[in-house]
Amino acid sequence: MDFKKLSQQYRSELLDKVVPFWLNKSQDLERGGYFTCLDRDGSVYDTDKFIWMQGREVWMFSKLYNTVEPRQEWLDCAVQGAEFLRRYGHDGNLNWYFALDREGRPLVEPYNIFSYTFAVIAFGQLAKATGNEEYAEISRKTFDIVLSRTDNPKGRWNKSAPGARALKTFDLPMILCNVALEIEHLLESDFLQQTIDTCLHEVLDVFYRPELGLVVEALGKDGKLVDCFDGRKMNPGHAIESTWFIMDLGERLGRPDLIRKAVDISLAEVEYGWDKEFGGIFYFMDRLGKPRHELEWDQKLWWVHLETLISLIKGYRLTGDTRCLEWFERVHDYTWSHFADPEYPEWFGYLNRRGEVLLPLKGGKWKGCFHVPRGLLCCWQELEKIVNDPPQRD
């Protein structure tokens, strides 16, 4: 495998196509913030603004500024989005709405905890870029709110009936593994370590099930498997995304045991989730092989494949495990041949099981300036490290 050529491929796609697409097509320079509902060619088809997507784009351009090159246009893009969020994105007490109209008027109440988590990393990364203490304080205070709501992420907007079946889900501890490292420059070391230890325990000791060799999406509050739709739900993409967060933590902490476990889980998940008939990784699966109720269960989604590429190439760099390299090549070939748009910049997000494009959009309510550029950036950086310091192969 020509790692140098691959590194250049990911770098060029990121800097020559994907980043300019968002920089030029998504900024609302009249009202502030970003348009994320962009058609195939980048034209705006809806002007509502979703806090997840706003925060992710602030983070992305701040990250590019901090880690690639301090380009003023990237910083300006991040700052104008953050200022829109600072003014309109929350209720005055850092309770972050889910959606706003173009002018910044609230459309959906702050029920979704991930509006908060992406505000945390957005303002945290931008604080690093600017040295702005107000941004740092927004990030810290929002993180405190997130941690205070881990047992009931939706707060008073929880739709469960009193006394109903109680489940805890994997998504929040999974993302907190990444959030903790993203804002470590803002946290006291003891508090950071405590947060990391808690997240690692939840992912590796609670949601990872040795009897399955896989990560489950939901468990009973007692930590036991539950036989219901939500309790049987498996999301290979989520599990794989968490593994590279853990690899980063393992590298940060000098814990090769964490790295090895994360690599083994990643390999098990991609093997489990791979569609052996049509290729690609399923969106949802059922732990007992029963039918899923989500109509999109067999779709192939952009973010699943990009997160898998990050995990596999990072796993190879850190361990030299050639199984990571073999799977990386397989997933790389599928991803670039199905999601990359040969005519316009940015990538398709939604394919049917056979790999045909379901929606030609480049952004919407759930897809924005995040998984594609982050995936390209991470893979480029990992490949560059491999070129400069090849791992010892297993």
In short:
By secondary structure, this protein is mainly alpha-helical.
Can you describe this structure?
The protein has 13 helices and 14 strands. It has two domains: 1-25 and 166-394, Glycosyltransferase (Alpha/alpha barrel), CATH 1.50.10.10; 31-148. The model has no long low-confidence stretch (mean pLDDT 95). Helix 3 (72-88) packs across helix 4 (113-130). It is 55% helix and 8% strand. It starts with a helix and ends in a 6-residue tail after the last helix.
- H/E series, N to C? HEEEHHEEHHEHHEEEHEHHEEHHEEH
Q: What would you say the CATH architecture of the largest domain is? A: Alpha/alpha barrel
Alpha carbon gyration radius: 20 Å
DSSP strand tally = 14
Summarize the amount of helix as a percent range: 40-55%
What spatial order of strands do you see in the largest sheet? Answer: 3-4-5
The oligomeric status of these chains comes to single chain
Query: How many helical elements?
Result: 13
Low-confidence stretches are none
First-last Cα distance = 16 Å
| Class by SSE composition | mainly alpha
Major sheet description: 3 strands, antiparallel
Task: State which percent range the strand residues make up.
Answer: 5-15%
Write down the overall geometry.
globular
Q: What is the domain tally?
A: 2
Report the CATH topology name of the largest domain. Answer: Glycosyltransferase
CATH top-level class of the largest domain = Mainly Alpha
